């Protein structure tokens, strides 16, 4: 087929996936070119969505005053959440650099609007959360596109949604799904920061794939795939 990917294109695709990182630091002062930012947003907007509802919106933020208010929310929430773990994990958690709100040139809030195209959306009647899942698909598109353009992206989830709604003047029915920091970086880490820090290990693929039913790790009909998964191949 003429639209098939070439081997070089396939390698580029997998490179973007395996080298994508949640970037919290090492942002440079280099601004993101308008054309590049537009390309990234277009990629996000071409994500799949339940019932073709396209329930996302993207709020671009440069204002330093807004950034400082969001940063304050992060600091408050990080301190509050640290009380959920005991020492020595608490101190280790507090030592982590987990955002780049002020350092990144562009902040971006991705929202979910369940009211788009009216109350009935094909595919959402049985699973209402499918709208939120669609927004997450847009975020993943955006993330991979940013990595392809050499731009770091960090998802700041230690935030108060109420603070976001107030400072970004979101309508009551609109849900903030992701607050992202975007910018060029000095380098992309070889491994995720929390893996490098020993906070959590990367699970092996064989431990998260079941066959036909929950918790079934072995099945004769899937023997070839089982063996490949056990080899833990990396296609980067």
Automatic annotation (TrEMBL):
All residue ranges annotated as the Nitroreductase domain in the record: 17-184
Pfam families per record: Nitroreductase (PF00881)
InterPro entries in UniProt: BluB (IPR012825), Nitroreductase (IPR029479), Nitroreductase-like (IPR000415), Nitroreductase/BluB (IPR050627)
Residue intervals passing through the bilayer: none
Enzyme class, broadest EC rank: oxidoreductase
EC number: 1.13.11.79
Keywords, in A-Z order: Flavoprotein, FMN, NAD, NADP, Nucleotide-binding, Oxidoreductase
Single Gene Ontology MF annotation: 5,6-dimethylbenzimidazole synthase activity
Name recorded for this polypeptide: 5,6-dimethylbenzimidazole synthase
Species annotation: Nitrosopumilus piranensis
Lineage: Archaea, Nitrososphaerota, Nitrososphaeria, Nitrosopumilales, Nitrosopumilaceae
């Amino acid at each position: 087929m003429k639209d098939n990917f070439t081997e070089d294109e396939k390698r580029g695709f997998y490179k973007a996936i395996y080298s994508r990182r949640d970037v919290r630091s090492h942002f440079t002062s280099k601004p993101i070119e308008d054309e590049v930012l537009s390309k990234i947003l277009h990629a996000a907007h071409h994500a799949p969505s339940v019932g073709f509802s396209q329930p996302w919106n993207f709020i671009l933020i440069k204002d330093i005053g807004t950034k400082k208010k969001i940063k304050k929310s992060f600091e408050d929430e990080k301190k509050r959440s640290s009380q959920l773990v005991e020492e020595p994990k608490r101190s280790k958690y507090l030592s982590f650099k987990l955002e780049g709100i002020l350092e990144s040139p562009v902040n971006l809030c991705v929202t979910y609007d369940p009211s788009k195209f009216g109350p009935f959306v094909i595919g959402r009647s049985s699973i209402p959360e499918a709208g939120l899942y669609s927004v997450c698909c847009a975020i993943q598109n955006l993330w991979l596109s940013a990595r392809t353009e050499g731009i770091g992206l960090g998802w700041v989830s230690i935030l108060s949604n109420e603070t976001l709604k107030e400072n970004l003047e979101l309508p009551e029915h609109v849900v903030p799904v992701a607050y992202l920091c975007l910018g060029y970086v000095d380098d992309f880490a070889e491994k995720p920061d929390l893996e490098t820090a020993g906070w959590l290990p990367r699970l092996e693929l064989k431990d998260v794939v079941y066959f036909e039913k929950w918790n079934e790790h072995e099945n004769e009909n899937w023997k070839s795939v089982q063996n490949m998964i056990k080899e833990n191949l990396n296609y980067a």
